[in-house]
Structures are given as structure tokens and as C-alpha cells.
Prior knowledge:
The chain is an alpha+beta fold. It contains twelve helices and 27 strands.
Amino acid sequence: MAWLVVPLATAPAAHAAVTHVANPFVGATPYLNPDYVSEVGAQATADGGTLGTAESKVAGYQTAIWMDHIGAIAGDSTHLGLQAQLDDAVAAGDNLFEVVIYDLPGRDCAALASNGEIPATAAGLTEYESQYIDPITAILGNSKYSNIRIAAVIEPDSLPNAVTNQSKPACQTATPYYETGVEYALNKLHAIPNVYDYLDIGHSGWLGWSSNMNPAAQEFAKVAKATTAGAASVDGFVSDTANTTPLDEPFLPNSTLQVGGNPLDSAKFYQYNPEFDEHHYDEDMHAALVAQGFPSSIGMIVDTSRNGWGGSARPTALNSTPTTVDAYVAANKVDQRPFRGDWCNVNGAGIGARPQAQPYGSSDPIIAFIWVKPPGESDGDYPTATHTHGDPHCDPNGTQTDGNGGTYPTDAIPGYDIPAGQWFAAQFQQLVTNAYPTLGASTGGGDTTPPSVPTGLTVTGTTATSVSLSWTASTDNVGVTAYNVYRGSTKVATVTSGTTYTDTGLTASTSYSYTVTAQDAAGNVSAASSAVTATTSASGGGGGSSGCTATYTVSSDWGSGFNANVTVTNTGTAATTGWKVSWTFGGNQTVSNMWNATDTQSGASVTATNQSYDGAIAAGGNTSFGFGATYSGGNAVPTLTCTAS
């Protein structure tokens, strides 16, 4: 294997010293792993034609470097070690480097294909600290790398297993070593100013149930608060690592939608898990983490390397004809797995959104999409008569159960048995073919420039059940191919022709907030437009009175910022269709992030309006929203005004 190394003498001048920024992915120049670039290049050359051209584009996107065993630190004859990779990044003048810390004692206690080399014992913990973490941090802390922003993805699947798999003896044994090991890793990594620490939080199909999400947030807080720096030792959290859960389910935006008298989340595919996708899961987990004491500025990241679900099986429009929740979900979900627990070399998956900073705008807690799992590397092999190690979940002919009596195929790609981390040509070909957005057919590393932000977003009309929008076209170095329309945080449409859209099926007398992003053929997506708010007209029917009250509670305050919760109670005699809470701060408080409501702030005046899913409150019932804010000086509780429709 050969790759081009730029001599240090001809390297670009060193960057100015890098401070610890809020979002290391903004404005950064990503480093490309030459080992992976070589693998992709060889596959693209072998396949040739249109497929090879599309495959070659993958080499132009950053993937993380996996330290998945002690030997990976030094490298071997086919893979560069950590120091050599960083030296290459310095030579190239790149200042964003992504590394996966993944070798805990008793690693992946609930799986087999990815078990590690270190036993879950006290001696194993010592080995992890002295032979794994210490050498890694010694390299990362070298001053010659101080200009590089190093994003560390810390121990995939570890702390999530500590939450949900304590009935498994291996996980019960490993959990104390997971907690102590992650604490040690955070202490060592946080001490290096240019390292950014992101804890793995599984994915929506794992921790999305409320019975899992809050305990998970508590577990993450427990470990973080045990470190020397406390919550500050964690820069953020990463979801969907090496998984295929989609970013959004565009035709299933409402998990409580009733079909045949049952909510969608009661379908067998979801099993009452209301988190259908990573976008909503990350935003809701963010709120749960903030409630546990993490600052509202904590960043969320999604691994989009294999969650695109494109190809001919992807639905392109809502199919509203099925009359049962199972049929409705099957007809409309983009996630084509038969069982949400399928994870090993999943058949039909595709490359997802390209790595990008602030994909939903600067105010959203999701700060970046990255590719943690290099597309085309196997998840694992399975046991055979001549090979006893492996994981049955990777057997294409195997089955697994959901814990509720259901049995499903593993959905692993048939015909292959390839060990974890090794190149899987057939999987890579499939991932490229099913990429969403499509990889297109341009050559080289591909277009990486996003379109300009859409401007002039305007409400052009409303009815009791619809809102019409228009905006000014964006520009792009190649060409804009579509616009994504968001109602709050939910993508409601992808507009491929024109710059107008009418959102239908809305509730009368309800306020809705909209933003628009632009995307090009390479999958680059602009930041979100400025938001506009529209209120649907009254339906003219109904009876009973409407009214509401709002109570305000500060849940945490650390002197320069705080989190607050607001409870909205329906004091009328009929269910509300919408509500609005307003107040005026007495100081310089500034809302930085709000959940379960849409906020607007002008000076000290703040207005919070319901989201589409929480505007209806039964008579005597209540709902709540929360927010994080910054301030200096006093932080008196304001007087709230609540109106309902």
C-alpha cells in the first residue's frame, strides 16, 4: 500500500494556537485517513464505471481512526499508527482529527463480534489505563499537535450497556470497569486543551424509551461528575455509532398519530418507543442530559456513515391508506430493517448525510454529522464449525428475538462471513448504491460546498388547517437540487421544484414555526433559514371556554447560566388547540436553547409557543417546556402571561 506524504519542509505554515472552541467542527479542515482512502480507491478502480465513480467520492469525506486494540496505537504493516496519522495531519495542514477510544475491559459485554482484548478484572482495568489510555494521551498531548482539533469518540456501547443489560452476567461484571475506565479516560483526555470528548449514547432504538432515556442520562452524569472537571470533562455526546437508525422518518413525524385506534409507536417495529429517528432522539436526550446538570451548550453528534436508507425501497411519499399501525409503519418507514435490533452488516443500508457542522443551524443541539464507522468495514463474522468465535447476530441465516416473543431474521448481508474491521466489498458497493442523499457521479473527492442559506422565508397564506410558505432561491457552486422544509424540528417536506410549499393537516388556531434548508446533489446542506411563525385561523366550531396558566421554575443555576422549566395548565372547560406563554426578563437573560416549545426573544421579552405535538391540552391537564439561558447579574423569576386557543 502506498500513499502520498507531504514532506514537513513543504507543509503549510502551522495554524495559530487552537483554543478550546464551542464547536470544533465549524470552519475546520478535516484529515483523511490514507489507509481508508487507499481501500476506497482500490474498490473504485476494481468496480469502475458509474459505480466506481460514485465510490471514489467517498474517499473525500473524513472518517474516524479506530483505536480498537492496543496494537492499533503503534500501527502495523498495513495500518498507520496514531502518531503517524497525526504527523500526516500536520504535514497536510489539516486541523480536524477524529479518533475512537474503544478498548474497555470486558468491551461490548452484550455482543460477541466486537469483544475486546482486555478482561473485565481489576488487572484488566490497570492494563487499560497504563497500556492503552496513557500511551494514547501521551501522543495526543504532544505539543506538535496542539493546532489540531482532536474529536475523541469515547467507548461505543459501554455506558448504554450499563443501563439496559444488567441482567446479563457479563455486563453486570463489566459495568464497574466501564464506569471507572471512562472516568479515567475523560480525566486524561480533558487535560489536553485541543481534545474534545464525546461520550457514546447508543441510538434511538436502544435508549429511546422513557424508561431507558432518563436512567441513561443519569448514568452519563454519574460518570462525568466523578471526573476531576465534572460535567466540563464532556464536550458532547454521539449517537448511532456504527448503526443504521435513520436521521429522520419524514413520513412518520408523529409517534402518537392514531391509526386504527392505536398510536404509531405501538407498532411491532417500535414497541412503544416514541423515538423513531436520531434527530428527535438526540434533541430529547439533550434535554434529559441538561436536566441532569450538563450545560445547555453540550453538543450532540450523529454518525451518519450508514443510516441513509436510499435506493428503490425508500418511500417517496406518504401512504395514508393502511388502516393498522403495523401496515402503516411498514408502508412509510425509511428504515427497511425487519427488526430495529438488527445491527450487523445490515442488508439494504446506505451511506447517509455527509459530514457537516451545524446541520440544523447554530441554535440546534445537534452540532455535527460525522462518519465514525468507515463505510465498507465489516461489523463482524459469525461462528461456524471451523471457526467458533463470532456473533450469531452476524449470521445471515440466523434469527434473534425482541424479548416480547417475536422472532426476526438478523438481516445480515447474505453470502458473507467477514471479521470485524476488515474490508467488506459487497457491503461498500451496497452502501454507495443506497446512499441518501445520492453520491451522484462527479469525480474525485466530490463537491463539499453547501448551498447558501435560503433567505426571504415568508408566510404567504393560512387557513384553519394549512400554512403556505415561499422563500428566495439559494445559490450553489454546482446547483441546488432541493429544499427541506421544517416545522419546528420536524422535516415535513423535501421540495425539488420551486421555492414554495403548503403545509397541510394542521390544527386550527395554532402557531407553527418554520425554517428551510437547501441541499445540492452531493448531499451538502445549508444552515437553516431564519424562522417564521404562522398561526392557523379558527375553525369556527367547538364549545367550551379556553384559558391557561403557566408556572416557572429554575431547575439549575451555575452563576453565568441556568435551566428553567415552565408548566402550562389548561384552566378552561375544553381542550386547547394551542397556547402561548410570554414574559419579560428583569435582567440580561438570553435564551440559548428551548425544548418542547418554539421561542422568540426581542430584548428582554420572550414568547414561547407550542410545538405541533403539545398544543392540545385536555381540560384540567398540563404540559411543560424548558429552556437554557445565559445571564450576568441578577436572575429573578419573571411574571408569566399565558393565552390558549
